């Protein structure tokens, strides 16, 4: 006679970059940050029960994944970690097993900044129209803001147009360091650009 396995208490714990969960029936959804270490723990309620994490679709666990005693560790968390997982409980020596909990991991990417200056820095001269683009990648929505270094206010003649910092007629007074800050639900990024006007020869 096949023994039916009933797990009275198995707890689920996510340890890592995010701890927020939205419960949807028996499915737990988690946001995890790309490139970080994350752990899923499916507790073994007794020495007679063993738990194991699997992909719901039967595919291999993601790169960087290892598990022991119900603890699934993914380090680092890549895009291939996104998807459905299930914790399966089983009594050693028995063919009976129970899916204890199902989890969906949503991998989110923090912002990353690169600068694009038009015209190139080596060709910026007083009186030129200059635009500095804070080009940001990462999961949307992303909020972008511009600031002057050392807490100074942006010059009145400077216009912020979304990701662009625009100088209608740049001058030597505009020389300095300008900071772009970007943020999304995965994190924040900051990068500084230095602008120097060069007199025409």
Automatic annotation (TrEMBL):
Q: Where is the Ig-like domain?
A: 35-101, 111-196
Entry's InterPro entries? Ig-like_dom, Ig-like_dom_sf, Ig-like_fold, Ig_I-set, Ig_sub, Ig_sub2
Q: Which residues form a coiled coil?
A: none
Could you say which residues form the signal peptide? 1-19
Which keywords describe this protein according to UniProt?
Disulfide bond, Immunoglobulin domain, Repeat, Signal
Pfam families given in the database record = I-set (PF07679)
Signal keyword on record: yes
Q: Which Gene3D superfamilies match?
A: Immunoglobulins (2.60.40.10)
- What is this protein called in UniProt? Putative conserved secreted protein
Species source reads: Culex tarsalis
Biological processes per GO annotation: cell-cell adhesion
| Signal among keywords | yes
């Amino acid at each position: 006679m096949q023994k039916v396995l009933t797990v009275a208490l198995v707890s689920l714990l996510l340890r890592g970059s995010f701890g927020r969960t939205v419960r949807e029936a028996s499915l737990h959804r988690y946001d995890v940050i790309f490139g970080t270490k994350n752990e899923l723990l499916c507790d073994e309620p007794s020495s007679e029960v063993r738990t194991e994490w699997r992909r719901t679709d039967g595919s291999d666990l993601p790169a960087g994944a290892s598990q022991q005693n119900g603890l699934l560790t993914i380090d680092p968390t890549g895009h291939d970690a996104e998807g459905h997982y299930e914790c399966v409980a089983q009594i050693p020596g028995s063919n009976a097993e129970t899916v204890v909990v199902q989890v969906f991991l949503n991998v989110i990417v923090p912002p990353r900044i690169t600068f694009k200056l038009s015209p190139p820095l080596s060709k910026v001269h007083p009186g030129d129209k200059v635009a500095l683009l804070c080009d940001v990648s990462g999961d949307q929505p992303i909020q972008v803001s511009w600031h002057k270094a050392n807490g100074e206010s942006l010059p009145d003649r400077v216009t912020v147009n979304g990701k662009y910092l625009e100088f209608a007629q740049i001058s030597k007074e505009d020389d300095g360091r300008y900071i772009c800050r970007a943020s999304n639900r995965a994190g924040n990024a900051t990068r500084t650009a230095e602008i120097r006007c060069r007199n025409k020869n």
